[in-house]
């Protein structure tokens, strides 16, 4: 799904993209793609695997378009899913094209979302699906993402990583789907990639009536008027915005630079919160030596910012995979 951005609204175009497709010879695809990105001044991260491509890149719009056209020329990549946003400054330090086993890590062999994914649901049709009492709605994101917002009535698997989803489903299968007539399942995630793969996993498990939100939460928040929305809270995003609300408006959360989890205004009032060092969620996960290291890094970042230069350790600068793990 491609959506135009307003020309000159912000000088840097950011494109989050993915496509499940059977890619042969990913090592041979890597170098021409990397060279084109470098020639066009594009930065970010792209992941290539035999199951497809995933990542986020940034640069001037003309260069972004040339890179996207190049990817779309690959077999079965014409329908590349792309979401555009803008940035005042370049959000990445360098360009990386990495070869991976999976473009979003689930760790389950034999899953092919390019062939076996569930049925796409357009954002405008999502309300009718999730309002049906016979539909089980599952949030396929990680628990820290769910904690700041989700669809009303959806199930939170409480996973720390997407690779934990199959284990959760194995534990809960009988409770959720043990009836004689298996229910309809609807799944969603931030941008669509995790729920698309999760839908293929459920179909491999023998379920037939499986649906997933096309374009993910971001497409829904952009398309659905707030007064008609079933979304509650904010949506965590893996870029400099941290969280967004309806119409993709800037959210109220910031990022903990120690653990990359979202931090609310209430979290900032906790004695466990220290900017750049810890938040209530991660304070107990670090020792004094680690916090001292983070404190020094934060001091250097603040100094660099006051001098008007980028600090090479900036956290958001190296995040580029679309939708996270």
Overview of the structural elements:
- The chain is of the alpha/beta class.
- The chain has 10 helices and 15 strands.
- The two termini are 21 Å apart.
- The radius of gyration is 20 Å and the shape is globular.
- The chain folds into 3 domains: 12-99, Alpha-Beta Plaits (2-Layer Sandwich); 113-233, 3-Layer(aba) Sandwich (Oxidized Rhodanese, domain 1); 262-307, no CATH class.
- Mean pLDDT is 90; it is low at 1-8 and 314-320.
- The chain has helices at residues 26-39, 61-72, 113-116, 123-131, 143-146, 165-177, 193-204, 216-223, 265-268, 288-306; strands at residues 12-20, 43-49, 52-59, 81-87, 95-99, 119-121, 135-139, 149-151, 184-188, 210-213, 231-233, 235-236, 243-244, 254-255, 262-263.
- The strands form 5 sheets. Strands 4-1-3-2-5 form a 5-stranded mixed sheet, with helices on one face.
Summarize the structure.
The chain has helices at 26-39, 61-72, 113-116, 123-131, 143-146, 165-177, 193-204, 216-223, 265-268, 288-306, and strands at residues 12-20, 43-49, 52-59, 81-87, 95-99, 119-121, 135-139, 149-151, 184-188, 210-213, 231-233, 235-236, 243-244, 254-255, 262-263. The chain is of the alpha/beta class.
The total count of helices amounts to 10
Main-sheet strand order equals 4-1-3-2-5
Number of domains: 3
CATH superfamily of the largest domain: Rhodanese-like domain
Draw up the topology in text.
Elements: E1 12-20, H1 26-39, E2 43-49, E3 52-59, H2 61-72, E4 81-87, E5 95-99, H3 113-116, E6 119-121, H4 123-131, E7 135-139, H5 143-146, E8 149-151, H6 165-177, E9 184-188, H7 193-204, E10 210-213, H8 216-223, E11 231-233, E12 235-236, E13 243-244, E14 254-255, E15 262-263, H9 265-268, H10 288-306
Parallel strand pairs: 2-5, 6-10, 7-9, 9-10
Antiparallel strand pairs: 1-3, 1-4, 2-3, 8-11, 12-13, 14-15
